[in-house]
Amino acid sequence: MSKFFCPAGSPSGLPEIIGYLNGTSIQHLFSIKTFLGTFVSCMLAVASGLFCGLEGPMIHLGAILGCGLSQLQSDTLGIHLPFFTRFRNSADKRSFITAGAGAGIASVFRAPIGGLLFTLEEVSSFWDIRLAWQTFFCCLTATFTTDLLSSSLHGFVYRGHFGFFEAEKRILFWVKNLLDMHVLAFIPAILLGMLGGLLGALFVSLNIKINKLRMQFFNSIPKPSLSKTSKLLETVLILVEITNDVQSLLLIMLAVMVAKMVGDFFSASLYSSLLRLKCIPYLDVEPFVHHRRERLNLELFSARDVMEPHVRVLHLRENIASLAWLLASTSHGGFPVVGRPKPDHAQVFQGTIKRLELCMLLENEHIFEPETSNESFSFSHPLTYEKITVEKLPKPSRLAVLLNRYTTDPRYQQLFINLEPYINKSAMSVQAHFSLQRTYIIFRTLGLRHLTVVDLQNRVVGVITRKDLMPLPLEERLRLQLSPQSPDAGE
Questions:
Q1: N or C end: fewer C-beta atoms under 10 angstroms in the chain?
Q2: Domain of residue 19, CATH code
């Protein structure tokens, strides 16, 4: 059902959430339709006794709730409440999504610390102490709510004792009989970890192969069957919290650490493999680029080496017909905007503007102005920030009609639009000779989707997108830079 009703949530959506929090734009991931499809399909699958868990869908549901409750608006339902407007920005939105994902895993295992560490190690790409406390509070609240409802409800039947937390219900795998341990117990723990790592690598390999077959069968991007792979800290904490077995903490840590080392030696983690399989441009913490089996030092390269030199730029005074033709003939998500600081100066970088913002501007003809003899524009009745900042177009079909009319009607050749009130003047830019290693760090840390490259005079000379920094394109471009210097270049 979820495959056809809401493909974005079929069935867990966790790799997509990881990619989104890394800075990738993924459509329909947090829509109401995806929430309903994921909730109903997860409920039916678990209730019917199918061999699947609810961890992945619960993480997705928690992320959707975090996204929706922090924005308090829905284009599908036509709801735009005048509350929490200060959170309607990408940074706060990602923070609430991260906290919601942690609350989802915490409610399943009733492990608030495990949910916090899961988001830290597996889900989030950007972390700070404020986000840690926010996520921990959500995990704690989710665990408390689950325990409170479970204290008196059993299969939607009220059994009394509301608010009475029984230890047997909270601890999923109760370990009551504690045994004394000998140092030799670490040997089977290591062997168990090695076996677990080998089985985990085999599982990841089989999972990816099965999903490739599903991709060929459905002729679309696969939605993998629910499965999970965990890292060291959250696995240990979740096991301790659901078993209450503190005495075996050292053995558990040792077994999990060995399993992770063995598994990483044979294959990448499941989520990393799924991100590559789904072609989601995820940027790792450190770029690993090799040339002739040697790792390249990106400090020796510059932003010029990987940028796209052929850039479509906009001007502060832009013709309506030209702007409509640009949007109709390209699929770029954003454009650099240039202008002259003084009449006798060259065109320099002023900021950037997104494609969706340009589309919203073109839907408001009252801001169009005729060509004037000077380069000044009136600032009467500009559109508000909330008016042009949208996640998706309200009516995509209407925009296509408008673009066709703007490009074919001669009167729009004489109309212009002033982009200055709407551009992002705080947009990041780097100079062409800037270190590639630091360019990568800036791009990933800020969660950018495009980065403008300028020369010493602040003129736009190129742009770097997320796909330019992916391992394979990065290796190909740097290989071209190294080929004239290689000893085999003349052969």
A1: C
A2: 1.10.3080.10
